[in-house]
Amino acid sequence: MAIVGIDLGTTNSAIAYLKNGKPEIIENKKGNRTTPSVVQKDLKGEIIIGEDAKSGIKSLPDRTVLEVKRLMGTDESVSMGEQQLRPEEVSALILKYLKESVEEKLGEAVTEAVITVPAYFSDSQRKATQKAGEIAGLKVERIINEPTAAAIAYGFENLDQNQHILVYDLGGGTFDVSIIEIFEGVVEVKASAGNNKLGGMDFDNAIVDWVVNEYEMIHGIHLYRVEGKTEQEVRALLKEEAERVKKSLSTQMSVRFMVPFVGIHNGAPITIDMEISRGQFEQLIQKLAVSTLHEVDTALKESNLSLTSIDHILLVGGSTRIPYIQKIVEEKLQRPIRKDINPDEVVALGAAVQAGIKSGAIDSADGLMVLDICSYTLGTDIVKNVGGQIIGGYFDPIITKGAKVPVTEKKTYYTMNDYQDQVIIHVYQGENEKVVENTKLNKDDIILDGIPKRLAGHEEIEIQFTYDINGILQVEATIVSTGKKITEVINSQVGVMDEREMTQAKVRLEKDWAESEYFEDVKKTLYRAEKLMQEVGEKEKQKLQEAVSSLKVALSRNDRISIQKYDEELTDLLIEFV
């Protein structure tokens, strides 16, 4: 089986593979080309993923997790009912669902994948994504940036053209912009910029905030303090309607925001029925939308290209369907945008092409070569002599932002104290001269000891960073006078699961998945029985109805013993009557 390409999105995900040398989206179990990145654990303990989980948010908001991508690379946990999960585990459930969708469609096992991430994802976020794939049973062969994947998909069909592409990627939860050059079969990233905390979900929240404020101003009622529903339940109702309104305003000039029952106030039911125009929506999102243009300026500056050098604009991500977004991008770049690509699918398609290159299904020598960059500066902390005082906490870059990957760079440092016999190396990622403003990558200290005890400044320590195509950093430190060295791959860091946590997560996933598959089998038994009722005589039909009713009651009560009993009885009847 060829390696698959996966776009693991904040709000929606997609999976693709190479078919006859061309990338193709694979539909999920529901027959849809994209899958909502939503996971739910219902009252029976069944794991539900995708469309059904999204539609169940209103009824079970405390047992539903969405938009988990924003938590990747953090040490936060999320709750699904009584269960606490790390972000990697939730993402792993989405990946496993996509994996099984492919296996069911193609009848082959899937064990390897190329997964995309935002260009501005940090080192810990990238590692967390790799860990999620591993928990799901996938060997993640490559992590690539989403704008790069979009350019790969585009470049795969336009290899004979030399051009500069601006990829404007505004998804559900993140924003990236990349400047990419395509020439002689090479896709080279020139520069990237972005914001990992900006996307379509923020536009939804802007609508929700407007509705809550307007309702309180008009009626004097704060919607989060009504009776009959918790604040979490009200938020879920408003957020769902806000997403619908946002999408409708892409094709309509005004839309009614309607929620028939939000709760109770002074004994009376509360209904929301408000009109919002496209102009009002554009005012609500204007500041957020315009902020993306500042990132466009940053990327252009770092690429050393002018606006006139850009040949084509590719819009990626569902939020780019918003007319106001298209308008400000066209006005900024002074040229029309390309509308011949599907913004929801192009990233997964590009990942599939990269998977084909990795597996050898596509010969890069004859077709496509991808050259990406390091999205952040990587370095270590040092001390400086400032006005005769030794002050620590300064950031010294070793690999600079925009360096082509894979890349190896090294610097030489000197001991700061007399008779110093060791150095402790800390690794940081960021652009600020103070390390406290950057992100520390290593949770465990990297210690190089055995330095000959000499006067300060007389011993040299060489530090080398190697950053590979998956965004994995290796640190090597050497005592120049003796040749002693240590080498560490930065695996242990805040926000990334360690091996013990990974083992526990895999066990939990398999247990939850097996339980969910059991419930899925019970549902299939009920479906077969209800279908058979239409074909058998009255006597057999009555027996089936009684068995179906008993099984449904057992399911509603989550009575495991009775579920197993009635499932077996119903299965026996199906065998008897078929």
UniProtKB/TrEMBL annotation:
* UniProt KW keywords: ATP-binding, Chaperone, Nucleotide-binding, Phosphoprotein, Stress response
Q: Which Pfam families match?
A: HSP70 (PF00012)
Q: Which GO terms describe its molecular function?
A: ATP binding
Q: What is this protein called?
A: Chaperone protein DnaK
Can you tell me which family this protein belongs to? Belongs to the heat shock protein 70 family.
- Which branch of life, at top level? Bacteria
Tell me, in a sentence or two, what this protein's role is.
Acts as a chaperone.
The record, for InterPro entries, names: ATPase_NBD, Heat_shock_70_CS, HSP70_peptide-bd_sf, Hsp_70_fam
